[in-house]
# Entry
Amino acid sequence: MALERTLSIIKPDAVAKNVVGQILSRFEGAGLKIVATKLTQLSRGEAEKFYGVHAARPFFKDLVDFMISGPVVVSVLEGEGAIAKNRDLMGATDPKKAEKGTIRADFADSIDANAVHGSDAAETAAVEIAFFFPEAHIYSR
Ligand code: ATP
Ligand code: MG
# Structure
């Protein structure tokens, strides 16, 4: 496995539930390091650009409306196999299908309000990280 970086977003539903610490703790517990993090609220333009790959999907407007509905916590996680490790910790997109003990099984209410985002491949991780953090603001260690 290679040392990787991945982008995590704790979505507005999970921030509103006050479970940011519990979610970040799962990343750390799995051996991932938080090498950048911030609380921010996305503009409509930013959310549309970030999820641009889904622009043609029927759920796009709901997805964007949801992502801008409140503050989010955006982090860069670093570690061996960080991309797949984070996806494993997250669980399936639809929390009803997410494995027991995953973040989405434990904290998400629906396929729209599903608590977390995680990059799905090395290429998307690089683009998503650069979208939120300049290299100088990432503290690898
Ligand atoms: P994310 O990209 O947020 O980490 P994901 O990679 O598990 O989630 P994607 O297929 O990339 O899932 O979908 C992006 C987001 O769009 C999902 O998190 C979910 O909120 C929403 N979404 C995906 N599929 C559907 C659907 N069939 N109906 C409603 N919303 C959906
Ligand atoms: Mg995705």
In short: Strands lie at 3-10, 33-40, 72-80, 116-118.
